[in-house]
Amino acid sequence: MTRTEPAAAMLRPTGISEGIRVRGVTVTTRNHATVLVENLEIDLRSGEIHALVGESGSGKSLSALAILGLLPPALEMTGQITPALRPGRDVALVMQDPVAALDPRWRVGRFLTGQFARLGDLPLSAARTAARAMLGRLGLTDIDRVMAAYPHQLSGGMAQRVMIGAALAGSPAFLLADEPTTALDVTTQAQILSLLQGLCRDQGLGMLLITHDLGVVAETAARMTVLYGGQVMERGPANAVLPRPVHPYTRALLRAMPDLASAAPPAPIAGQPGRPSGRIGCAFAPRCAQAGPLCTAARPQLRPRGDGAGDFACHHPEGDAA
Ligand SMILES: Nc1ncnc2c1ncn2[C@@H]1O[C@H](COP(=O)(O)OP(=O)(O)O)[C@@H](O)[C@H]1O
Ligand code: SF4
Ligand SMILES: [Mg+2]
Asked: Is 115 a residue whose pLDDT tops 50?
Protein backbone atom coordinates (compact mmCIF):
# COMPACT_ATOMS: atom_id res chain seq x y z
CA MET A 1 0.00 0.00 0.00
CA THR A 2 2.43 2.75 1.00
CA ARG A 3 6.17 2.85 1.42
CA THR A 4 5.65 2.73 5.16
CA GLU A 5 4.17 -0.74 5.26
CA PRO A 6 7.33 -2.85 5.68
CA ALA A 7 8.67 -0.55 8.38
CA ALA A 8 5.36 -0.44 10.24
CA ALA A 9 5.04 -4.22 10.01
CA MET A 10 8.54 -4.69 11.41
CA LEU A 11 7.70 -2.46 14.36
CA ARG A 12 4.54 -4.37 15.23
CA PRO A 13 4.62 -6.14 18.58
CA THR A 14 5.60 -9.77 18.49
CA GLY A 15 2.59 -12.02 18.27
CA ILE A 16 0.10 -9.59 16.72
CA SER A 17 -0.18 -11.88 13.69
CA GLU A 18 -1.66 -14.40 16.12
CA GLY A 19 -4.34 -11.87 16.97
CA ILE A 20 -5.38 -9.72 19.91
CA ARG A 21 -6.40 -11.47 23.12
CA VAL A 22 -8.67 -9.57 25.50
CA ARG A 23 -8.85 -11.25 28.89
CA GLY A 24 -10.86 -10.28 31.95
CA VAL A 25 -11.20 -6.65 30.91
CA THR A 26 -13.30 -4.70 33.37
CA VAL A 27 -14.02 -0.98 33.10
CA THR A 28 -15.23 0.93 36.15
CA THR A 29 -15.62 4.51 37.20
CA ARG A 30 -12.55 5.71 39.12
CA ASN A 31 -14.34 5.34 42.45
CA HIS A 32 -15.26 1.74 41.44
CA ALA A 33 -18.91 2.54 42.20
CA THR A 34 -20.10 1.55 38.71
CA VAL A 35 -18.95 -1.40 36.64
CA LEU A 36 -19.46 -0.49 32.98
CA VAL A 37 -17.79 -3.47 31.29
CA GLU A 38 -17.24 -6.69 33.20
CA ASN A 39 -14.74 -9.45 32.51
CA LEU A 40 -14.72 -9.04 28.73
CA GLU A 41 -12.98 -11.86 26.84
CA ILE A 42 -12.58 -11.56 23.08
CA ASP A 43 -10.14 -12.98 20.56
CA LEU A 44 -9.59 -10.87 17.46
CA ARG A 45 -8.01 -12.78 14.59
CA SER A 46 -6.29 -11.55 11.46
CA GLY A 47 -8.50 -11.44 8.39
CA GLU A 48 -11.66 -11.98 10.44
CA ILE A 49 -14.59 -9.77 11.44
CA HIS A 50 -15.72 -10.22 15.05
CA ALA A 51 -19.01 -8.45 15.72
CA LEU A 52 -19.70 -6.86 19.09
CA VAL A 53 -23.46 -6.57 19.40
CA GLY A 54 -25.87 -5.01 21.87
CA GLU A 55 -28.30 -2.17 22.41
CA SER A 56 -27.20 1.36 23.10
CA GLY A 57 -25.51 1.60 26.50
CA SER A 58 -24.34 -2.05 26.52
CA GLY A 59 -20.67 -1.07 26.81
CA LYS A 60 -19.61 -1.62 23.19
CA SER A 61 -17.78 1.68 22.68
CA LEU A 62 -16.11 1.49 26.09
CA SER A 63 -14.89 -2.01 25.22
CA ALA A 64 -13.29 -0.66 22.03
CA LEU A 65 -11.71 2.26 23.89
CA ALA A 66 -10.38 -0.14 26.53
CA ILE A 67 -8.74 -2.30 23.84
CA LEU A 68 -7.21 0.85 22.33
CA GLY A 69 -6.03 2.06 25.74
CA LEU A 70 -7.95 5.28 25.16
CA LEU A 71 -10.55 5.30 27.93
CA PRO A 72 -11.51 8.73 29.25
CA PRO A 73 -9.63 9.74 32.43
CA ALA A 74 -12.77 9.31 34.56
CA LEU A 75 -12.68 5.55 33.93
CA GLU A 76 -10.33 2.78 34.97
CA MET A 77 -9.55 -0.58 33.43
CA THR A 78 -8.25 -3.88 34.79
CA GLY A 79 -7.51 -7.03 32.81
CA GLN A 80 -5.11 -7.93 30.05
CA ILE A 81 -4.77 -7.14 26.39
CA THR A 82 -2.00 -8.97 24.59
CA PRO A 83 0.16 -8.13 22.84
CA ALA A 84 0.61 -4.54 24.07
CA LEU A 85 -0.85 -2.32 21.34
CA ARG A 86 0.12 1.07 19.99
CA PRO A 87 -3.07 2.99 19.10
CA GLY A 88 -3.04 4.07 15.47
CA ARG A 89 -0.15 1.78 14.51
CA ASP A 90 -1.22 -1.71 15.62
CA VAL A 91 -4.91 -1.02 16.01
CA ALA A 92 -6.99 1.95 14.86
CA LEU A 93 -10.51 3.21 15.45
CA VAL A 94 -13.19 4.08 12.89
CA MET A 95 -15.99 6.03 14.50
CA GLN A 96 -19.71 6.26 13.97
CA ASP A 97 -20.25 9.77 12.66
CA PRO A 98 -17.45 10.58 10.24
CA VAL A 99 -18.42 14.19 9.54
CA ALA A 100 -18.53 14.97 13.27
CA ALA A 101 -15.20 13.17 13.79
CA LEU A 102 -13.43 15.38 11.24
CA ASP A 103 -12.20 18.84 12.28
CA PRO A 104 -14.46 21.26 10.36
CA ARG A 105 -11.60 23.79 9.96
CA TRP A 106 -9.29 21.42 8.12
CA ARG A 107 -9.42 20.42 4.48
CA VAL A 108 -9.31 16.65 3.92
CA GLY A 109 -5.87 16.92 2.29
CA ARG A 110 -4.31 18.62 5.31
CA PHE A 111 -5.92 16.19 7.75
CA LEU A 112 -5.01 13.02 5.85
CA THR A 113 -1.50 14.20 4.98
CA GLY A 114 -0.94 14.92 8.66
CA GLN A 115 -2.13 11.42 9.59
CA PHE A 116 0.24 9.77 7.09
CA ALA A 117 3.15 12.00 8.13
CA ARG A 118 2.61 11.24 11.83
CA LEU A 119 1.64 7.58 11.75
CA GLY A 120 3.67 6.59 8.69
CA ASP A 121 6.76 8.63 9.71
CA LEU A 122 6.80 10.23 6.25
CA PRO A 123 7.94 13.66 5.04
CA LEU A 124 4.99 15.83 4.02
CA SER A 125 5.33 15.39 0.25
CA ALA A 126 5.44 11.57 0.55
CA ALA A 127 2.60 11.69 3.09
CA ARG A 128 0.47 13.65 0.62
CA THR A 129 1.15 11.10 -2.13
CA ALA A 130 0.30 8.26 0.25
CA ALA A 131 -2.94 10.03 1.29
CA ARG A 132 -4.00 10.43 -2.35
CA ALA A 133 -3.18 6.79 -3.12
CA MET A 134 -5.22 5.69 -0.10
CA LEU A 135 -8.28 7.67 -1.24
CA GLY A 136 -8.02 5.97 -4.63
CA ARG A 137 -7.79 2.55 -3.00
CA LEU A 138 -10.88 3.33 -0.96
CA GLY A 139 -12.91 3.91 -4.11
CA LEU A 140 -12.90 7.73 -4.32
CA THR A 141 -12.48 9.02 -7.84
CA ASP A 142 -12.23 12.83 -7.88
CA ILE A 143 -9.25 12.86 -5.55
CA ASP A 144 -8.27 16.50 -6.18
CA ARG A 145 -11.74 17.62 -5.16
CA VAL A 146 -11.83 15.39 -2.06
CA MET A 147 -8.38 16.55 -0.91
CA ALA A 148 -9.46 20.20 -1.27
CA ALA A 149 -12.83 19.72 0.46
CA TYR A 150 -13.84 20.71 3.97
CA PRO A 151 -15.70 17.98 5.90
CA HIS A 152 -19.12 19.62 5.41
CA GLN A 153 -18.62 19.43 1.65
CA LEU A 154 -18.37 15.62 1.72
CA SER A 155 -21.23 13.13 1.57
CA GLY A 156 -21.47 10.75 4.55
CA GLY A 157 -20.01 7.90 2.50
CA MET A 158 -17.08 10.03 1.29
CA ALA A 159 -16.40 11.23 4.84
CA GLN A 160 -16.40 7.66 6.16
CA ARG A 161 -13.94 6.63 3.42
CA VAL A 162 -11.70 9.51 4.50
CA MET A 163 -11.92 8.34 8.12
CA ILE A 164 -11.12 4.75 7.13
CA GLY A 165 -8.16 6.09 5.13
CA ALA A 166 -6.98 8.03 8.19
CA ALA A 167 -7.32 4.90 10.35
CA LEU A 168 -5.22 2.93 7.85
CA ALA A 169 -2.45 5.57 7.74
CA GLY A 170 -0.34 3.74 10.33
CA SER A 171 -0.81 0.35 8.55
CA PRO A 172 -2.61 -1.17 11.56
CA ALA A 173 -3.15 -4.94 11.72
CA PHE A 174 -6.56 -4.46 13.35
CA LEU A 175 -9.43 -1.99 13.02
CA LEU A 176 -12.05 -1.30 15.66
CA ALA A 177 -15.05 -0.04 13.71
CA ASP A 178 -17.60 1.53 16.10
CA GLU A 179 -20.97 1.53 14.32
CA PRO A 180 -19.22 2.70 11.12
CA THR A 181 -22.40 2.74 9.02
CA THR A 182 -25.06 3.89 11.49
CA ALA A 183 -25.00 7.50 10.31
CA LEU A 184 -25.21 6.54 6.62
CA ASP A 185 -28.09 5.85 4.22
CA VAL A 186 -28.81 2.23 3.35
CA THR A 187 -27.00 2.17 -0.01
CA THR A 188 -23.90 3.83 1.39
CA GLN A 189 -23.99 1.50 4.40
CA ALA A 190 -23.73 -1.48 2.06
CA GLN A 191 -20.81 0.11 0.18
CA ILE A 192 -18.84 0.88 3.35
CA LEU A 193 -19.48 -2.61 4.77
CA SER A 194 -18.30 -4.17 1.54
CA LEU A 195 -15.19 -1.96 1.65
CA LEU A 196 -14.42 -3.07 5.22
CA GLN A 197 -15.02 -6.72 4.31
CA GLY A 198 -12.63 -6.32 1.37
CA LEU A 199 -9.91 -4.95 3.67
CA CYS A 200 -10.23 -8.02 5.89
CA ARG A 201 -10.39 -10.49 3.02
CA ASP A 202 -7.71 -9.01 0.76
CA GLN A 203 -5.27 -7.51 3.24
CA GLY A 204 -5.73 -9.74 6.25
CA LEU A 205 -6.96 -6.94 8.52
CA GLY A 206 -8.69 -8.17 11.64
CA MET A 207 -11.73 -6.20 12.76
CA LEU A 208 -13.95 -5.67 15.75
CA LEU A 209 -17.18 -4.48 14.16
CA ILE A 210 -19.47 -2.81 16.67
CA THR A 211 -23.08 -2.79 15.62
CA HIS A 212 -26.61 -3.09 16.93
CA ASP A 213 -27.73 -4.52 13.58
CA LEU A 214 -27.84 -8.32 13.49
CA GLY A 215 -28.44 -8.18 9.73
CA VAL A 216 -24.97 -6.63 9.39
CA VAL A 217 -23.54 -9.37 11.62
CA ALA A 218 -25.12 -12.09 9.48
CA GLU A 219 -23.62 -10.59 6.32
CA THR A 220 -20.13 -9.87 7.56
CA ALA A 221 -19.00 -11.52 10.77
CA ALA A 222 -17.27 -14.84 11.40
CA ARG A 223 -17.70 -14.54 15.16
CA MET A 224 -19.90 -12.51 17.45
CA THR A 225 -20.12 -11.45 21.07
CA VAL A 226 -23.43 -10.23 22.50
CA LEU A 227 -23.04 -7.66 25.26
CA TYR A 228 -25.69 -6.38 27.67
CA GLY A 229 -25.10 -4.15 30.68
CA GLY A 230 -21.35 -4.59 30.15
CA GLN A 231 -21.59 -8.40 30.45
CA VAL A 232 -21.13 -11.02 27.75
CA MET A 233 -24.46 -12.76 27.25
CA GLU A 234 -23.60 -15.11 24.40
CA ARG A 235 -20.74 -15.56 21.95
CA GLY A 236 -19.57 -17.90 19.25
CA PRO A 237 -19.44 -18.36 15.48
CA ALA A 238 -22.08 -16.11 13.89
CA ASN A 239 -23.33 -18.97 11.71
CA ALA A 240 -24.17 -20.95 14.86
CA VAL A 241 -25.39 -18.22 17.22
CA LEU A 242 -27.67 -16.37 14.78
CA PRO A 243 -29.70 -19.36 13.57
CA ARG A 244 -29.73 -21.06 17.01
CA PRO A 245 -29.44 -18.43 19.76
CA VAL A 246 -29.89 -19.83 23.27
CA HIS A 247 -29.67 -16.67 25.39
CA PRO A 248 -32.99 -14.84 25.97
CA TYR A 249 -31.30 -11.51 25.16
CA THR A 250 -29.88 -12.71 21.82
CA ARG A 251 -33.28 -14.17 21.00
CA ALA A 252 -35.00 -10.90 21.93
CA LEU A 253 -32.58 -8.92 19.75
CA LEU A 254 -33.41 -11.19 16.82
CA ARG A 255 -37.15 -10.84 17.40
CA ALA A 256 -36.72 -7.05 17.42
CA MET A 257 -35.27 -7.10 13.89
CA PRO A 258 -37.54 -6.26 10.97
CA ASP A 259 -38.03 -9.38 8.83
CA LEU A 260 -38.95 -8.57 5.24
CA ALA A 261 -39.89 -12.19 4.58
CA SER A 262 -42.47 -12.27 7.37
CA ALA A 263 -45.80 -10.52 7.87
CA ALA A 264 -45.17 -10.42 11.65
CA PRO A 265 -44.01 -7.00 12.89
CA PRO A 266 -40.73 -6.79 14.81
CA ALA A 267 -41.14 -7.19 18.60
CA PRO A 268 -39.20 -4.47 20.44
CA ILE A 269 -37.57 -5.55 23.71
CA ALA A 270 -39.73 -4.25 26.56
CA GLY A 271 -38.18 -1.80 29.00
CA GLN A 272 -35.10 0.38 28.78
CA PRO A 273 -31.55 -0.94 28.49
CA GLY A 274 -30.31 -1.21 32.07
CA ARG A 275 -27.64 1.08 33.31
CA PRO A 276 -24.92 -1.04 34.90
CA SER A 277 -24.50 -0.77 38.65
CA GLY A 278 -23.35 -3.01 41.46
CA ARG A 279 -25.76 -5.80 40.47
CA ILE A 280 -25.60 -9.27 41.91
CA GLY A 281 -27.59 -11.31 39.39
CA CYS A 282 -28.07 -11.23 35.64
CA ALA A 283 -27.96 -7.74 34.09
CA PHE A 284 -30.87 -8.61 31.79
CA ALA A 285 -33.16 -9.85 34.60
CA PRO A 286 -35.37 -6.70 34.82
CA ARG A 287 -36.38 -7.15 31.15
CA CYS A 288 -36.27 -10.91 30.75
CA ALA A 289 -39.47 -12.93 30.32
CA GLN A 290 -37.64 -16.07 31.51
CA ALA A 291 -36.32 -14.55 34.73
CA GLY A 292 -36.75 -16.55 37.94
CA PRO A 293 -35.55 -16.11 41.55
CA LEU A 294 -32.07 -17.45 40.76
CA CYS A 295 -31.57 -14.76 38.11
CA THR A 296 -31.52 -11.90 40.61
CA ALA A 297 -29.66 -13.91 43.26
CA ALA A 298 -26.66 -15.22 41.33
CA ARG A 299 -24.68 -14.01 38.33
CA PRO A 300 -24.88 -16.60 35.52
CA GLN A 301 -21.39 -17.62 34.40
CA LEU A 302 -20.42 -18.31 30.80
CA ARG A 303 -20.73 -21.98 29.91
CA PRO A 304 -20.52 -23.89 26.63
CA ARG A 305 -23.56 -24.22 24.42
CA GLY A 306 -24.79 -27.77 23.98
CA ASP A 307 -23.68 -27.80 20.33
CA GLY A 308 -20.16 -26.74 21.38
CA ALA A 309 -20.36 -23.63 19.15
CA GLY A 310 -19.76 -20.88 21.68
CA ASP A 311 -20.82 -19.97 25.21
CA PHE A 312 -23.72 -18.28 26.97
CA ALA A 313 -24.40 -16.87 30.44
CA CYS A 314 -27.95 -17.67 31.50
CA HIS A 315 -29.64 -19.77 34.17
CA HIS A 316 -32.60 -20.64 31.94
CA PRO A 317 -31.42 -20.82 28.32
CA GLU A 318 -33.80 -21.53 25.50
CA GLY A 319 -33.50 -23.31 22.19
CA ASP A 320 -32.04 -26.52 20.81
CA ALA A 321 -28.39 -25.70 21.42
CA ALA A 322 -28.85 -24.92 25.13
N1 LIG B 1 -17.05 8.58 30.92
C2 LIG B 1 -18.05 7.87 31.44
N3 LIG B 1 -18.36 7.93 32.76
C4 LIG B 1 -19.36 7.20 33.28
N5 LIG B 1 -20.15 6.38 32.56
C6 LIG B 1 -19.91 6.28 31.24
C7 LIG B 1 -18.85 7.01 30.61
N8 LIG B 1 -18.86 6.70 29.28
C9 LIG B 1 -19.88 5.83 29.11
N10 LIG B 1 -20.51 5.58 30.28
C11 LIG B 1 -21.65 4.66 30.49
O12 LIG B 1 -21.20 3.35 30.20
C13 LIG B 1 -22.23 2.59 29.60
C14 LIG B 1 -21.72 1.99 28.30
O15 LIG B 1 -21.45 3.03 27.38
P16 LIG B 1 -21.01 2.75 25.89
O17 LIG B 1 -19.84 1.84 25.86
O18 LIG B 1 -20.85 4.07 25.23
O19 LIG B 1 -22.28 1.97 25.29
P20 LIG B 1 -22.59 1.56 23.79
O21 LIG B 1 -21.42 1.91 22.94
O22 LIG B 1 -22.87 0.09 23.84
O23 LIG B 1 -23.82 2.33 23.41
C24 LIG B 1 -23.40 3.54 29.41
O25 LIG B 1 -24.30 3.32 30.48
C26 LIG B 1 -22.78 4.91 29.51
O27 LIG B 1 -23.70 5.84 30.03
S1 SF4 C 1 -30.11 -15.52 33.64
FE2 SF4 C 1 -32.28 -15.30 34.01
S3 SF4 C 1 -32.68 -13.10 33.68
FE4 SF4 C 1 -30.71 -13.54 32.78
S5 SF4 C 1 -31.18 -13.95 30.65
FE6 SF4 C 1 -31.14 -15.93 31.70
S7 SF4 C 1 -33.26 -16.31 32.28
FE8 SF4 C 1 -33.10 -14.15 31.77
MG1 LIG D 1 -21.34 3.22 21.32
From this structure: yes
